[in-house]
Amino acid sequence: MKLFSSELGHNYDSYTFGYTNYAGRQQGDALLQIYEEGYLPYSAARGVKDIFYMARSVRVPLARWEATSENRRIEKKFDGMFEKKRIPFADFVRDEAFFTFCLNYFAQKHGAKAMSRERLELILDCRLVSTIIVYYKEGVPVAYVFEVEGENVGHYWFSFYDLSLARQSLGMWLMLDCVRDAKNAGLDYYYLGTVYGEKALYKTNFEPLQWWDGAEWSNDIAHLRERGHTDEKRIIEQMDAWKEDKEFFN
Predict the structure, then answer these.
(1) DSSP letter at 198?
(2) What is the mean pLDDT of residues 187-215?
(3) Partner of 106 for a Cys bridge, out of 115, 126, 138, 231, CB 3.0 to 4.6 A?
(4) Residue 90 CB contacts under 8 Å (≥ 6 apart), including other chains
């Protein structure tokens, strides 16, 4: 694993110097180590492969995880409603209906530029996705989840679902269902992506939960919630130097 940093910005008066941290995956590198050190896969620019970025990610320690009362409330809404297939990535067939479903989801939920077909194909071709989980209702797909798995860890990377069920918390249920599967499979940790801003704080409904604070995995969820509530105050406009010559999908 090749680690490198890229200059972001500075405030010389206070001796504040910002850098973003990356990891380049090399042959033989275990995903377990990359995730353990606070990195997640990067997929935002053309021509970039095997690069991971450090961020405020969260993970569920599965040996100690049990459904909370809030989890059980969500379970009651959807448990037993769908047929589920966990399809190994090598066996998954990408047809036009699949691409249309996923791209329409992102356009409606995150904006037209959030996920192009080119970016989606890069994600699928990056050799990280191990399983695609498909949920069906009356034979029709209503959700897809892209999952990364390696060395006793799993990562809920991307999900795409029927937005007519969004207000009933289908997105939360999908994540919860995947956490249950990971626990039943005997994995040690299940990674849920990042927590930035108030919209991501729903992930703190998992207990126990750990978050990467830049140096170690923290169990202080009150502090994580405080960071999420105040993230709007810390948004910066510039990008780090490594990204300056990159061509972004959006």
Answers:
(1) G
(2) 97
(3) 115
(4) none
Q: Does pTM surpass 0.85?
A: yes
User: What kind and span of H or E run contains 225?
Assistant: helix 221-230
Nearest-angstrom CA–CA distance, 214 and 52: 14
Longest CA–CA span in the chain (Å) reads 63
Q: Is the pLDDT of residue 250 over 70?
A: no
Pairing of strands 153-161, 189-194: parallel
- What confidence tens digit (pLDDT) does each residue in 142-171 have? 999 999 998 899 999 999 999 998 888 999
Identify the structural domains of the chain with CATH numbers, from first to last: 2-243 (3.40.630.30)
Question: What would the two tokens of residue 68 be?
Answer: 């909370």
Q: Exposed, middle or buried, 1 (CB in 10 Å: 0-12/13-18/19+)?
A: middle
Phi, psi of 17 (to 5 degrees): -130, 115
**Residue among 140, 175, 145 nearest 160 (CA):** 145
Report the SS3 class of residue 30.
Answer: coil
Q: Which residues, in sequence order, are bridge partners of residue 153?
A: 150, 189
The two tokens of residue 211 are 């978050």
Please check whether residue 142 is in contact with residue 165, taking contact to mean a CB–CB distance below 8 angstroms. Answer: yes
SS (H, E, C) 169-180: CHHHHHHHHHHH
Tell me, what's the pLDDT at 87? Answer: 98
Cβ atoms of 188 and 61 within 8 Å: the answer is yes
Q: Say how far apart CA 159 and CA 141 lie, in whole Å.
A: 13
Alpha helices in 58-157 (DSSP H): 69-78, 96-110, 117-124
| Residue percentage of the chain with pLDDT more than 70 | 100
Helices (H), 93-220: 96-110, 117-124, 170-184
